Amino acid sequence: MAVFWKAMAGGLLLTLSLTLLGWGVEGQGNRQGKKEVSGGATVYLGQDRDIWRPMMYTTVNLSEIRSIKSSFQLRTFDPEGAIFYGDTKNGQDWFVLSLMDGIPLMQISREDILVSVAGGPKLNDGKWHTLEVSHQEKFVVLEVDGSNRLEVGMQSKQTQEILVGELRLAVGGILIDKEKMIVQFQPQMDGCVREGSWLNLSIPWEADVEELWPCYQNIQPGSYFAGTGFAIFNTSVFPIEADHVVKTELWGDFSKMDGTILSIKAPGQEIIFALVANNNTKEVTLTFGEEKLSMNDTFKRLVITFETDKLQVFQDEDESKTTKLSIAGSHPGYLTPWRGGRLAFGGLLGKGEDDVGSQFLTGCLEKIQVQGKDVDLDLAVKHMSISSHSCPA
């Protein structure tokens, strides 16, 4: 997937082209020992890597550019993330396409001009959308599904120049300091692109990853845990309300989960709370200190409320199916771990302060809420094997 832009006579000519870049059936090594990838196949943008580092990139001589239009298809439930980056003059002039709140966002820097524009329909509905980027006179035009358009026009008063040299392209990240952008965003993108056509070029792209991750044929909203890692938050980011209650809600098919769903550790103490699914026994076990509650795993929603003197568990929507755990004298209060502790989704926190975990979860949490607000795992310290916004359906 590529966006191309360069300057030509008459002011700024932004020649952009976004493409679906897909892996071939198998990545091939090049002379530098890096994997080469080709356009046209389906590729997952959430590949394991540093969150700002592009998943793939290429460099092309400007003299080889013949096309000023490209198209690709994008599918995601993720409201935010980097899609494409391009630059000339080794990063002095650059272009970034991303999503923000599910809406396309273009940011462009050239000479004395820095501009950003966002608009169009929300694209994070889990459906395939066709995007086409082209240059039309002094405008860069992003077209979505053949009709919705986002346009940005730029014209510099500086003397025009004929660009020579190289154009750098990158997918899923950027090659400049993120502080140079007008609008800051989270770069991780849990999404897929396919059926790309870019610049009519056949040069290969390079990727630093060792393993190429596939895209699932069908997806649903949620957070998918592959059994290899977990997501950690400081509990201080979840404020305790005036009524001294912390409410945690989890949605999903608990009968298809296996491993630690949730664990909490107070500062300097052992694990004080754990919620674990066992696919062999078909039970979900909740442990708080020495107290333990085992439940049949047939429910689809679990609500856990932490209060000063008790902990309550609700299954599905039926509050009659409620079990209260009373506090034991040797325990700290039920709200103690929520004051400066650690909370992990998808794994059991370690005993030390390094938070090395175990008993990782395999399965899909369709929705996670704390204090009535959706939890975005992209804001956590997490293992890259976790798909924050989609699960295989």
From TrEMBL:
Keyword Lyase: no
GO annotation, cellular component aspect: extracellular region
InterPro entries the UniProt entry points to: ConA-like_dom_sf, GAS-SHBG-PROS, Laminin_G
Keywords per UniProt: Disulfide bond, Glycoprotein, Lipid-binding, Repeat, Secreted, Signal, Steroid-binding
GO MF annotation, one: steroid binding
Subcellular localization: Secreted
Superkingdom: Eukaryota
Domain Laminin G stretches: 49-215
Protein name: Sex hormone-binding globulin
Native source species: Sander lucioperca (Pike-perch)
Gene encoding the protein: shbg
